[in-house]
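Subject: Interface between my chains keeps coming out wrong

I've been trying for a while to get a sensible model of this assembly. When I model each chain on its own everything looks fine, but I need the whole thing in one frame so I can look at the contacts. Pasting all components below, labels as-is. Any help appreciated, I'm running out of ideas.
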Amino acid sequence: MTAPLLEVNELVTTFPAETGRAAVVDGLSLSIAAGEVLALVGESGCGKSVTALSILRLVPKPGRIESGRIRVAGRDVRALPITEMRAVRGALAAMIFQEPMTSLNPVQTVGAQVVEAIRLHERVSADVARRRCVDLFERVGIPDADARFESFPHQLSGGLKQRVMIAMALSMQPKLLIADEPTTALDVTIQAQILELLREIRDRFGMAILLISHNLGVVNELADRVAVMYAGRVAEEGTRTELLAHPRHPYTQRLLASIPSRTRRGEPLAEIPGVVPSPGEWPVGCRFTTRCHRAFEPCAEIVPDATAISDTHRAWCHAVAREESS
Amino acid sequence: MEGYVVSNAVVGALVAGAAYTVRAVRRSRQWSQAFRELGRRRPIALCAIAFYVALGLADSVAWIDASATGIAAYEPSSLVDRLFPAEFQERSYSAPFAFEEFYGGAGLRHPGQHWLGTDIRGRDVLHMALKGARVALLLGGLTSLIVIPLALFFGMSAGYFGGRIDEAVFFAISLLSSIPTLLLLIALIVALGRGPVQVCFAMGVTSWVGFSRVIRGETLKLRELDYVAAARALGASDARILLRHILPNVMHLVVITFVLLFSGMVLTEAVLAFLGIGLDGSWGQMIDQARDELARDPIVYWNILAAFAALFFLILSVNRVGDAIRDILDPRTVRENV
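Reply #2:
Try treating it as a single job with all components included. I did that and got this:
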C-alpha cells in the first residue's frame, strides 16, 4: 500500500486556559488516501476546525501545535520552513471555509482574488491568469463567468461566493481539499448543488477531500470514510456504511439516533444528555464517560485503546472492546 | 540650490504626476466612473479646490527677470506676483475699492484698484490672500504625506503582528500622547527651525498618534476576518496580506483622515501663527496680524475677512469632497448610486 496523502499522528494542539494550556485536539490520528473523501464529524467545539487548521499550520495564536506528526504528500508539515509551508498551502492542500459571506475580500473583485491565488504560486501573466480564472469559474458552475470576473463579492449570492471560494481553492489543483463546513451557511437547495460540485471535483481531479461537518446528511452524500470526533479525539472511524449503518461507539449510536426521522414520527427527539465538557475539564479516561449510558468501571480511569471491528472499522470504547472479546 | 528652482522643479513633478494619474484614471473604467460621480455630486467644491490648487501651483512657479534691477534682481517673483507688480502698493490702510487712505484721507496711488483694500504697510490684501493658498496647500499636503505613511506603518504592524511589536508601538504612542501637543510642536519647531518643511515635519510627527490608533484597531478587527485566513490558507505571506487585504480595507479611513488632517493642519497652523511660529505668508499669519486691527476705531475688517474667507472655503471644499470620495470609493455603496 502506498503512503497516504495525508497522515496525522497523535496530534496535540493546545490553547491557553485559566490553568495552563488546554488541549483542544488531544492525540488525534487520521489518514486520507489520494482521491478519498474522509468526513470528520462531531459536535461544535470538539476540535474539528482546529484539526483542519493544524494540518495547514494555521492555528491562530495563542494556540499552538504541541506534538504529533502531520505529513501532507510525504512532507512533514511541522518541520517545513515558513516559505515552503506557504508553497504547500494552496498548491498541495487548499482550504474552503464555512462562511462564504466573509471569506472574500470586500474591496476587490472576485476575479482579482482568484488571479492573486494563481499568481501566488505560479509566475504567469495577468492575461493567462485571467483566462484560467474564467475557466475555473465555468468549471465550478458560475454562470456568465466572464462578466462575473469583474463582480465584487457583495454582488454575488452566498452560493456563488462559495463557488468562487471553491474555484480559488482549485486554482492550483491541490491534491487535498480541506472543506470546513462548506455548506453550513447555505440554504438547502444550494447545499445540494455545492455537494454535487464537490463530488464532481473529486471524480474529475481525483482530489482527496477532508470534509468537516456536523451534518450527517452531508456526510452521507459525499464521504467514503467517516471519523467521529469527540472532545479532541477520534471516537470511531470506518467506511460510510459501517459507521452510519452499524455504529458501535455509544456516542456515534446516540448521535445517529438524535437525527429526526420519519419512522419515529410523533416521538420526542432523542438527545444526548449533558453537554460536551470544555477542554481542560475532560475526564481522565474515555472522554465520553460523563454522558455515556453504557459507562462502567474502567471508563472514567483508563483511556480506551482502538478495538478493530473490521479492517476499516475501529472504535475507541471499553464497552465495544468487551463485546468483541466475548 | 536656490529655493525657487527647487519649487519650480516640484511643480514640474507634480504636474507630470497629475498628467500620469489622469491618464491612468482614464484607462480604468472603475476610476473614471468614480471621478465622474465625484464631479456630479460635488461640482462646486471640486471647482473651488481646482482653483486653490491652480493658484498654489501658479504661485510656486517663480523666476528672476534678466532685466530686473535692485531688490527684484534677487527676489524671484511668481506668476501670481506678476499680476501684482511691486509698485502696486500704498503707504498704509485703505478699504476695498477706496480712493483715499483709511486714516487721514490722503489720495491713493492706485485709487479704486485694491479690490480687498491694503494692509498697514500698504500691501494689497487680495495679493496676500491669494499667496496664502500655496502655504496652506503645502502645509496640509506635506503634513498628511508625513502622517499617513507613519500612522499606517505603525498602526498596521502593531495591529497585525501584536505581541512585542504592538507593545513597542503602543509605548511610543502613549509617550507621545502624554506630552501636550502644542508644547511638543513648539519645541520641535524651535529645535528644527521655522522653514515650511521643518514645520510640516514637526506637525506630522506630533499628529500621527491618533490616526495610528484607529488603524491599529481596524487592523486588529480585519486580521481575524475569514478572508485573511483564506488568503493565508492559499499561501499568502504576511507582507502580501498586509498590502493586498488589510491596506485596501483601511483606505476609506485614510481618505477621511487625509481630509480631516488637511483641514486640521491648516487650522493648527493658524494657531501657531497666533503664537508667532507659523509659516510666513500664511492665512494664519494674516489673521494674527489683523488681531489689533479689530480693536481699531473705525474697525479694519477686510484683512481678517479675506484670510478667513480664503481659509473657510478651502476647508469647506476639502471636507465636502472628502466626504463624497469616501462614499464613492466604498464598493458597498457605489451600486446604489450608479
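Reply #3:
Confirming on my end. Chain B has 13 helices and two strands.
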